[in-house]
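During the practical work, I selected for study one protein's amino acid sequence and its backbone structure tokens, as given directly below:
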Amino acid sequence: MKKYNVLVFPCGAENALEIYEALKSNVLIDVAGASSIDDHGKFAFEKYIGGLPYIFDPNFIEQFNKIIADNEIDFIFPTHDTVALFFSENRERINAKIICSDYETALICREKSKTFALFKDEFFIPQSFDLSNQDITYPVFVKPNIGEGAKGTAIINSSSELNFYSEHQDDFLIHEYLPGLELTVDCFTDRHGKLRFIGPRTRERIKMGISFHSESYPLTSEVSHIATSINNKLSFRGLWFFQLKQNSKKQFKLLEVSTRCAGTMSLYRQLGVNFPLLSVFDAADLDVEILYNENKIVLDRCLYTRFIQHLYFTTVYIDFDDTIIVNSKVNFHALKFLYQCVEQGIKVVLITRHEKDLTKTLSEKRIAYNLFDEIIHLKQNECKGDCIVKERDAIFIDNAFKERKIVKSKCNIPVFDVDAIQSLTL
């Protein structure tokens, strides 16, 4: 079966990272990231292309097509609504297939006024008000016509607040305030226009427009009807999502629809619904099947830190007790780093004063003896610093400050505590 090269652009936001996580382990796909601004994508993507012009630069398409040619890209995955709209509009000028719905659908989804106009006769459209309307019932909710991530939104409690908001925002919508439960509904529509999956999930603890807590939510007939109605009036292909919020009567009302990937689509991916992967295969004109585990799942996220150490080394010396084994348990972070070293051709040397039978302990912990290129098993009175070959480009990892201080002094190489292994791991 053909292997597909996929380019994620731009690649630094949470939804771009979700696409990467969803695709990177599939043997039929090679995934790369590209951006106009160097951000977290540079740290996360193994293959990263930076320095692109912005999409509205007159040279963008020419330079983008060069990247497509140089990297033999088959598919482009846009991750921002404006970028998705631009790529959909310029689909014929870009020399790779765009994983996105058609231009008309992307345009309607990008402008909320167009979305609400299309569905104005549906029960799930919130009550709207005009700025000149003197009979507005407060509070109301205002938001930009074109926007994302809750930017520029506000709850307005009076006419004076509304007037103040209107002085600072030109193109915006006024809707009834919706105090109830908020959902995102992740969907997949295949190339035949058939809505294949509907996945509601809660939006909780929202920061920076991102759900830091989300739980799968039962698919009710109300939500299913809304999803089907939206799918029937727009020409989706691949992944898409929409957001709902309950009014005071617990009726769901539409907030927005989008043709791009949502970062928290990762929730349903853990239940077997890999939206980015399904979208790639559908874009390749392949029939797909969905195997869905129907158990409840909860997602909770925090800010995640990645590092790039500007450090060259060809050998790692690493301690065993309280470094590879911590509190009688295997330190998975340490093992991940060691396997990374093996893949990169970096020599791994275990240096330890382990008091028991080391071979037996390794076996009990299911750690392969041959994971290590060399094992130095010291007596209690022997110094680790005396055993490190000084001319090598080496680093030393040990939980004990005393050991690190001696090695640093004797060998003049970088030394790391156990907690710093994270900065060495890709």
Residues 221-233 form the longest helix (13 residues). Residues 389 and 411 are 8 Å apart (CA to CA).
